[in-house]
Amino acid sequence: MTPRQVARAFSGLLLALLVAVLSSTIVSNALPTILADLDGSQSQYTWVVTATLLASTASTPIWGKLSDLFSKKLLYQLSIVIFTAGSVLGGISQSMPELIAFRAVQGLGMGGLQALIQVVIAAMISPRDRGRYSGYIGAVFALATVSGPLLGGLIVDSPLGWRWCFWITVPVAVLAFIVLGRTLHLPVLKQQVKIDWLGATLLVGGVSLLLIWISLAGGSFGWWSWSTLLYVLGGVATLALAVFVESRVSDPVVPLRLFRGRTFTLAVIGSLSVGTAMFGGAVFLGQYYQLARGYSPTHAGLMTIPLMLGLFLSSTVAGQVISRTGRTKPWMIGGAVLLVASLFLLSTIDHGTNLVLMGGYLALLGLGVGALMQNLVLVVQNTVAMKDMGSSSSVVTFFRTLGGSAGVSALGALLAAKVSDHVASALAALGIHGGTGGSGGSLNLGALPEPIQSIVRAAYGDSIGSVFFAGGIIAVATLVAVLFIKEVPLRRSIDLTTEEPAATPVPGANVSGVVSTPSGRPIAGAALTLTDPAGHQVARAVTGEDGHYELAAPPNSGYVLIASAGRFQPSATALAVNGQTVRRDVTMTGAGGLSGVVRSRAGHPVGGATLVLTDYRGEVVASVVTGGDGWYHVDDLPGGTYTVTVAAAGHRPSATQLSTVDGEESAHDVELDSAAELTGVVRSGRLGVPVPEARVSLVDPAGEVVAVTTTDAEGRYRFTDVPEGDYTLVTSGFAPVSAPLAVSAGHAVSRDVELGATA
Fold first, then answer.
1. pLDDT tens, position by position, 168-207
2. What is the reported pLDDT for 108?
3. Which of 255-269, 380-394, 517-531, 714-728 bottoms out in mean pLDDT, i.e. has the lowest?
4. Is 633 in a helix, a strand, or coil?
5. Rounded to an integer, what distance in angstroms lies between the CA atom of residue 391 and that of residue 389?
6. d(Cα 671, Cα 603) in Å, to the nearest integer?
């Protein structure tokens, strides 16, 4: 894909990602209001978030595996459709179980949106350039996280109500679907489809059992009880069975062989920890500001701006610098240090903490997460081949979201227990003894008496520090993992250049040819990749100045020859090698450009001129309007012969023919001759009324008729595009009348005519 095509497709990907992230952040500030309206409890508050993260976790590796088998574009659009359906259904929920179920549907789509964006980018952009794009992804995360709580708060406080928090993302999702349908064009390699459904089911089932145990323990049953034993043993046994299945199937949903790589394993550990700290710590901020500090949803959203600004700055700056230097580890170490430090600082807050100081802590947290989140995926993509790009990217995202799911459940249970203890202690101090409702207590504080409201608010404020403290301990694992990651400079190629051992070339079995444009011009620097039926790279070469390439391949097998180069469209061709040299020339169509300046004969730029390109069939290929400096530019123009027509007010139209070359930028300046406009009215000399259908001719000094027109019903005539010079205006209809006149270039001339009586 050309750089312009990549930019267009990337905009669609960012729109879809914006919708996915916005759906989580826009609801976070609305949750206290939603739970009060639907009579929800603290444990249900946790599961509204956990259901989405768990469904996203479950579907992430499946989406990644499907992307190695099917069209990435169709899969991304399918994930948008599923996500949109969940959003619409979530807005019509009438109870907490319904809301949790529909949030799970949202999570299925969100898993695809978050996992596939990394896979699609990896298929379009090399790791060295990918750092810059990862920075843009981080910026979108920051934008959605900044605007989400604010937008959610405004919606909740407005007459629209909390249900529009789910519906407002639907138009953006539809727009992303349309943009991707028109802009994303990636080659699809057909492969045999094998999905490890059993492994995925066991993996998600084991995790779900452990998360359900964490959520219910201490409330529905004791931490040390037969129920705990059953949940824990069931979860561990299911996960052990999942590992066994993954080690035996041919196409596992989580390829265990990837964990043999040190970088991959450490990145997974780091992602698991950062997900726990990021999701688990940040998801309770809205609850803290609204329940503990008594702020409105809108005000609570404003209080999280320091966190999002830090995330925005860190991810954007890190992405730009990494693309130029190729180094990721310094940024990840710095981000991990800031993450740990900020979480421990946030562990000191209570219901009376200075909000300016807390804003500083949140800014540090944003800086740390921004430098870590996307770069952990980037270092993994830099060390795996293209055939494993979908699986590896989705596995890292899988464990990050898994960490978030576990973090929300575990830290939510911790918060509920701490709140229950603080409330019980405060009530006991007032001489009131009895149960506090545990984690199942209602979050509708408005239904409580004023003294009890104050106690509950203080309990939430004093308990939130424990959540961040636990997150800080977990984040230490991220710091340790990042420290031991071996830094490998980011490569500039999309795929690894090393060949698979099983695909050792056999001398004498060669594939060769010339890569050229449709006009026959050789293309230098084109990359040719030969893959076997399993998608493994067999050989790779780059064309020379003459466009020639040569690849060695084992005989008696079928292959796919993939060609890619700069601004040219990639191509894929199937071929068979039978032990003899195979000649296969490749023709690549490309998109060049045309630019230039439109000037007058006096050398002045002509702004507002319309330039139209037509092909040999007369079909309009492109049309642009010049800027104030007369400059124009036409993008994505295939090589060929075109007619360039330029028209501008006060100038004579110009038409010239030119030829362009595939993939190259062409220049063409245009000079326009100035022209004038001649108008007037023909009237009867005796009656003074306009004369319709009178014939008006413009004659030059040589007696040649330059132009002829007929007056309209009001007696008006008009000549445009009149060159500078002296003319005679001849009018007939009554007795003919002729009158000399002079026309100056660039000026409008008006001349009325009176006709005599009819002869």
1. 888 888 888 888 777 776 655 545 556 677 887 887 788 7
2. 86
3. 380-394
4. strand
5. 6
6. 8
Q: Which residue has the tokens 């003074």?
A: 688
Q: How confident is the model at residue 307 (pLDDT cuts 50, 70, 90)?
A: confident
Instruction: Tell whether 76 and 175 lie within a shared domain.
Output: yes
Q: Which positions ≥6 away from 8 have C-beta within 8 Å? A: 179, 183
Amino acid occupying residue 110: M
Instruction: With a cut of 70, say whether residue 372 has pLDDT above it.
Output: yes
Among candidate residues 672, 707, 737, the one where a domain is terminated: 672
- Whether residue 385 sits in one domain with residue 322: yes
Supply the CATH number for residue 27's domain.
1.20.1250.20
What are 74's two structure tokens? 């169709």
Beta strand pairing status for 592-600 and 665-667?
parallel
DSSP assigned state of 288: I
Considering the domain architecture, whether residues 245 and 255 belong to the same structural domain is answered as: no
CA torsion, ordered 741, 746, 747, 751, to nearest 10 deg: 40
Q: Has residue 118 got a pLDDT over 70?
A: no
Rounded CA separation 451/614 (Å): 79
Contact 695, 708 (CB under 8 A): yes
- Residue finishing a domain among 540, 564, 587: 587
The amino acid present at 68, given as its one-letter code, is: D
Q: What is the DSSP letter of 291?
A: I
Identify whether 745 is part of a domain. Answer: yes
* CATH number for the domain harbouring residue 509: 2.60.40.10
Residue 221 lies in a domain: yes
Is 188 part of a structural domain of the chain?
no
Tally of domains in the chain: 5
Please, what is the angle between helix 355-381 and helix 262-282, to 10°?
Answer: 150
The reply to whether 489 falls in a domain is no
Phi, psi (5° rounding) for residue 35? Answer: -65, -35
- 8 Å CB contact between 407 and 207: no
Strands 640-647 and 705-710: unpaired
Beta strands in 557-660 (DSSP E): 557-564, 571-577, 582-583, 586-587, 592-600, 610-614, 620-625, 631-637, 640-647, 654-660
> Residues 580, 606: one domain?
no
Contact 590, 569 (CB under 8 A): yes
Please indicate, yes or no, whether residues 216 and 362 belong to a single structural domain of this protein. no
Q: What is the pLDDT of residue 18?
A: 81
Q: What is the dihedral of CA 414, 416, 417, 420, to 10 degrees?
A: 160
What is the extent of the structural domain holding 218? Answer: 197-250
3-state SS of the chain: helix, strand, coil percent to 5?
Answer: 50, 20, 30
Measure the CA–CA gap between 410 and 632, rounded to whole angstroms: 59
- Residues 611 and 683 reside in one and the same domain: no
What are the tens digits of pLDDT across the range 233-258? 998 999 899 889 888 877 676 777 77
Contact 735, 695 (CB under 8 A): no
Length in residues, the chain:
759
pLDDT digits (tens, 9 = 90+) for 503-554: 344 444 578 888 887 767 788 888 898 887 777 788 888 888 888 898 888 7
SS3 388: helix
CB 654 within 8 A of CB 625: no
Q: Which of 98, 61, 75, 71 is CA-nearest to residue 16?
A: 75
Determine the Cα–Cα distance for residues 118 and 137; give it in Å rounded to an integer.
10
Are both 274 and 404 inside the same structural domain? yes
259: how many CB neighbours lie within 10 A of its CB?
12
Q: Give, in degrees to the nearest 5, the angle at Cα 666 between 665 and 669.
A: 140
Highest mean pLDDT among 132-136, 555-559, 615-619, 736-740: 615-619
Claim to verify: residue 602 and residue 511 sit in the same structural domain = no
Choose among 310, 308, 367, 319: nearest CA to 341.
367
pTM (two decimals)? 0.53
Residue 205 is predicted with a pLDDT of 83
| Average pLDDT for the chain | 77
3-state secondary structure 109-146: HHHHHHHHHHHHHHHHCCHHHHHHHHHHHHHHHHHHHH
